[in-house]
Every structure is written in structure tokens, then in C-alpha cells.
């Protein structure tokens, strides 16, 4: 993410100022060549940043192996995959409307989603949702945790 933000920042600086536009009208062809060269330099900088980040990730993985004592290497799964799955599950929970307040006070929305009566649903939420845990609600609770 930081390298993408840096690249966008470079692009924002790239629109020509008025002085450069006047120069471009006088020396049109020459100015275009310079601009193309600047773009190539920016792309090279971006690639260097990506390589540095990859090196940092490799160093972190090596440190984890040393801390564990080298008995069993960690599974070859990048950390980003776990974040993607967790984020997708969170989005799904938020979209369905279950447990918006976390495990503590998520009883009322679950009761409402199950078709419960409004006032009783609110009471169930205050009590932690233990009183009315039916089979359907129990299955949804396991997904929310």
C-alpha cells in the first residue's frame, strides 16, 4: 500500500506547470522525450520499493523459524491470505447484520434476524443472548465467533 500511495503522489506532481507548458509549445518534441524519461525513472523506483518489501517479509519468516527452534517449518502460506479470509468473513457478517457489536452484545440483531419479537429480542441482547439460543441461532453464533 505505501508504494502505491507513493506512486500516486508522483503522478499528482507530474501535471506540467504553466512554465513547462510554455516551454512545451516552444520545444514540443524535446519536452516529450524528457517526460517519457521521467516516467521510466518513477517506475524503476517503484520496483525497487517492492523488492525491499519482499526482502523484509523473508527476514520476518526466517526470524519466526529461529524462534520456534527450527523443529517444524511454518506452512508456506502468505500472511495476506489469512487477512483476506478474515476480512471477507467480517464483511459477510456485517452485510447479514449478525453480531455487529462483537460477541458481548450481539444478541438483539440475531434475535431480530431469526424473526423474534422486537422487545424480547432487545432483552435477549442485554442478557448476552443465552436465553433463546435455538438450533438456528446456535448455528449463526458459531459463524459470528
UniProtKB/TrEMBL annotation:
Segments of this protein annotated with the region Disordered: 1-84, 96-145
Comp. bias regions, Gly residues: 99-108, 115-131
Biased composition (Low complexity): 11-25, 32-67
Biased composition (Basic and acidic residues): 136-145
Signal peptide: none
Protein name: Uncharacterized protein
Source species: Eimeria brunetti
Amino acid at each position: 500500500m505505501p508504494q502505491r500511495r507513493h506512486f500516486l503522489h508522483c503522478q499528482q506532481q507530474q501535471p506540467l506547470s504553466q512554465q513547462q507548458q510554455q516551454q512545451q509549445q516552444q520545444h514540443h518534441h524535446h519536452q516529450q522525450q524528457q517526460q517519457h524519461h521521467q516516467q521510466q525513472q518513477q517506475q524503476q523506483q517503484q520496483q525497487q520499493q517492492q523488492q525491499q518489501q519482499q526482502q523484509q517479509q523473508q527476514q520476518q519468516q526466517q526470524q519466526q523459524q529461529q524462534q520456534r527452534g527450527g523443529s517444524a517449518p511454518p506452512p508456506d502460506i502468505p500472511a495476506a491470505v489469512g487477512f483476506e479470509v478474515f476480512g471477507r468473513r467480517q464483511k459477510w457478517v456485517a452485510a447479514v447484520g449478525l453480531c455487529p457489536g462483537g460477541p458481548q452484545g450481539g444478541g438483539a440483531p440475531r434475535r431480530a434476524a431469526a424473526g423474534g419479537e422486537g422487545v424480547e429480542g432487545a432483552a435477549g441482547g442485554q442478557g448476552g443472548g443465552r436465553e433463546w439460543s435455538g438450533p438456528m441461532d446456535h448455528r449463526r453464533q458459531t459463524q459470528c465467533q
